[in-house]
Amino acid sequence: MTPEPAQPSDPTEAAATNPVWPSNFPDPQVLPDGDGWVAIATNGNGMNVQTLVSDDLATWSQGSDALPQVASWSTSGKVWAPEAHRFGDRWVMYYTTMAPDPAIQCIGLAVADDPKGPYRDTSSQPLVCEEEQGGSIDASPFVASDGTAYLYWKNDGNAVGMDTWISVQRLSPDGLRLEGEPKRLIRQDLPWEGQLVEAPYVWERDGVFHLFYSANDYGSDRYAVGHATASSPTGPFRKDDEPVLTSTDVAAGPGHCALFEQDGRVLMAYHAWAPDSIGSEVPGRTMWLSEVTFDGAAVTVTPPATTLPEGL
């Protein structure tokens, strides 16, 4: 019989085990917030951008909507995959939302003084919107050790029967504008990836740029996290042949990850389904934590387990 993740009646009283949040919280990112942490995620529970707060990464409580109002050119209710980064004394959040026209998803930008928000988007148009490529989603900011900022994203090609590409473009130092030209990096070309690649996240370690990404059908146990490396943030990236994070007997379809550092350790936040509830709104895609270790171009990610990484 397949063991199930703990499902406490009140998520604010969750036990200190994986999943660290046992309710629907897709596409999570964990950010430092003073002496604590805040997690942001795709719309749900009446919020455009869900938030959770924690003092210890093991127990979490629900916060308020980090994006109470989307840009004037968009519509609330379909806000996906938010990711934020601190630029100077401000936080900039990049999020997927409905385009003005046609009915595709594009990338917006909002600014706040606090990682929890509220973020405000005063733009008159999307930051990235590849209309002829199915739209643009899954934006992820990255600042290299030399201070240069970049934005990675995916064209939503699988929505229109086209290839999906992870692209990158340089950001202005304040994170508010794109500079130069976009560059395509990788597309779906390995058997395990199925029809798409998406959800990029880049981490720099000892001169190596590690691109984590997700692939295959998010609503299945085939969804997983892949890994590629390069000597530059703009590639070329070389993929591992197989994914670095896959389903286990307690978590199905782990993916859409984001990394963060805690006391010198690198942790990965991601979502996964309960194996007996794949595709179900309840409990939905819950938030999990694993540990990532680096050895040159190689990485190891602890598989999804109900036991948290040691030390949490």
The global form is: globular
- Rg, Cα atoms, Å: 18 Å
Overall pLDDT metric: 95
Output the strand order for the largest sheet.
1-2-3-4
Class by SSE composition: mainly beta
Total helical segments: 0
Give me the strand/helix succession: EEEEEEEEEEEEEEEEEEE
Low-pLDDT runs: 1-9
Provide the β-strand percentage band: 35-45%
Q: Percent range for helical residues? A: under 10%
The N- to C-terminal Cα distance equals 28 Å
Quantity of strands, as a count: 19
Describe the sheet with the most strands.
Answer: 4 strands, antiparallel
Task: Describe the protein.
The chain is mainly beta and 312 residues long. It is 0% helix and 43% strand. It has a 4-stranded antiparallel beta sheet with strand order 1-2-3-4, with no helix packed on it. The chain has a 4-stranded antiparallel beta sheet with strand order 8-9-10-11, with no helix packed on it. A 4-stranded antiparallel beta sheet has the order 12-13-14-15, with no helix packed on it. A hairpin with an 8-residue loop joins strand 2 and strand 3. The chain is globular, with a radius of gyration of 18 Å. Mean pLDDT is 95; it is low at 1-9.
